[in-house]
Design brief:
123 residues, mainly alpha, 75% helix, elongated
Amino acid sequence: MNRRELQKILADHADQLIRGQDQTESLIQQYNAEAQELAPLLRLAQRLQAVLVPVSPRAVFVQQLQEDLLHVDRQLTVAAPENERRPAWLGAATLGSLLSLVGLLLLLRRQRARPGMVEVAAG
């Protein structure tokens, strides 16, 4: 039995235990050849399920958590616009870059439109 098959069997077994269906012994019999590896794990899961008790948070805790999360959300919402403001120079730099790119594209287009022109290097 490979690791993936073993994980699938154990996951299915755990799901059954959660639903109140204990199929431990029938699974051990079904996978008799692998029982040496599988049986201790199935029995451990069975014992763990037997000793675990459901736990629920207290109502006060749930209420406090909700208030804390809403408070943090309000703080982030108020702080977000301040963080989103960009300096004026960033907008100017972006506009300058775009204008340079447009100028370069127009120059290339103009040079391709006049194939007979010879470029002269300045210097």
